[in-house]
Amino acid sequence: MTKAVVVGSGPNGLAAAVHLARSGVDVQVLEAADQIGGGTRSGPIDVPGLIHDHCSAFHPMGIGSPYLSKLDLERYGLIWRWAEVDCAHPLDNGDAGVLYRSLEQTAAGLGADGPRWQRMFGDLSTGFDALASDLMRPIVNVPRHPLRLAAFGPRALLPATVTAKLWKTDKGKALFGGVAAHAFYPLNRPATSAVGLMITAAGHRYGWPVAEGGSRSITDAMAAMLLDHGGKIDTGIRVRTASEIPDADVVLLDVNPEGALEILGDRLPGRVARAYRKFKQAPGAFKVDFAIEGHVPWTNPDCARAGTVHLAGSFDEIVAAERETNSGRMPDRPFVLLGQQYLADPTRSAGNVHPLYAYAHVPHGYAGDATEAIIRQIERFAPGFRDQIVATSSSGTADLAQDNPNQVGGDIIGGANTELQVVLRPRVAVDPYSTGIAGTYLCSASTPPGAGAHGMCGYNAAESALKYLRRKGAEVL
Fold first, then answer.
1. Do 204 and 86 contact (CB within 8 A), yes or no?
2. pLDDT mean over 84-108
3. 3-state DSSP assignment of residue 76
4. Entry's Gene3D superfamilies (predicted)?
5. Torsion of CA 390, 396, 398, 404, to 10 degrees
6. 34, 78, 308, 468 — which has fewest CB within 10 A?
7. CA angle 221, 347, 383 (to 5 degrees)
8. pLDDT for 143
9. Residue range 198-220: average pLDDT?
10. How far apart are CA 263 and CA 74, in angstroms?
């Protein structure tokens, strides 16, 4: 029987494994950690009974994934939950930009900017599935929906600072800017509108749900499906060299380019090795997991209903903070993403004690402690927050990298979204998943379409592997 080995059990590794197993391939997954899931792991940290997400937390691109949405993972225990409000962006004057799944409700809350918001996101949200089916594939492909791509392209290529000029109110600009900041890249650079447009459009199509029981439920469901199709998963096995990988017809690596260099070494063609060495990492994240008694005392009541809260003040402040982190300097007021997953999923709490998730954008490899900066940003919009803290667990960039080797320097998005890498990652190639070694592929978030628990990097890499197997004459579906 045709055999595949997948190194790494994050959402992309497992997506690749499931696709191969469902195609008739005998699949073995090797995971270095004792728990599967990579960036989708969840569990208690300091307070028993609380469930904290290790990294990935909200999943508009997961529920809207062209691959995962077709797997019927609900049959394997995955349950999506939504907060009343998907995202809120408070301002210092007490107002807030509020993102609902409903495009109309969002527009109504933006006042004078409402009609402009509807014009920008109306066609993107209604046509999201068609658009995603093209954008979440390798860049070299025949578009299935060329007209939608043609309408999206000019908007996506604009700097976020240019797109933000469409909105006239502070809350309209800030709401878009907070979502665009998920790119971890200076917002005055070309193509920085793309991330903000797609994540917002996904929110209006599907909302920003969480997985009941923690993000690990996504990969637990995929693992259960893999086992159902005869696959195997072995944990506690760290692969450091190619010689440690069992014999297989194809090998898929859910690792970043640095990890691929370490594992494959001199087997890599020179041109590929050079490209992997030049691969640019993104700024880092500094994460703080809080246990709090009661709810966060937000000044703006909409924040108390929001699963995600962006803490960054005005659009100009977001632009300044992202410029600083990308220049290697720690801003006094960093961009902070705060997650109140328990609002949608009460199973994560223990009585009146709740888990609170927060991370700040920091320079790559930042060695300082951003805990206080994060608390100050929360206090800025929720005075009295400090008094509710029961426990705090901080993870700096080195801690994140130690916990998950793919998160080099605290990079949680699999590589910088530079003008080139946002579409051509990890190298310029017809098949970006190919390592240049026959039958060996990269399937991590460092490949197209990039970060998110959507599994599309794994699915696309598995498609490349299946084409290779068919060329060899292997019996696959």
1. no
2. 98
3. helix
4. FAD/NAD(P)-binding domain
5. 70
6. 34
7. 125
8. 67
9. 97
10. 35
Which amino acid is residue 153, in one-letter code? Answer: G
CA distances from 397 to 83, 173, 288, 289, 361 (A): 29, 30, 11, 14, 10
CB neighbour list of residue 312: distance below 8 Å, 6 or more residues apart: 89, 174, 177, 178, 181, 318, 321, 333, 334, 335, 336, 377
24: how many CB neighbours lie within 10 A of its CB? 16
Count Cβ atoms below 10 Å from residue 330 Cβ, excluding itself.
18
pTM exceeds cut of 0.90: yes
Span 252-277, average pLDDT = 97
* DSSP code per residue over 254-279: -S-HHHHHHHHGGGS-HHHHHHHHHP
281 DSSP assignment:
P
Spatial contact of 322 and 108, defined as CB atoms under 8 Å apart:
no
Domains, in order of start, for the chain: 3-78+212-280+413-472 (3.50.50.60), 80-210+282-403 (3.90.660)
Residue 228's CB: how many other CB atoms inside 10 A?
13
The tokens describing 123, both together, are 């066609």
The confidence score (pLDDT) of residue 139 equals: 72
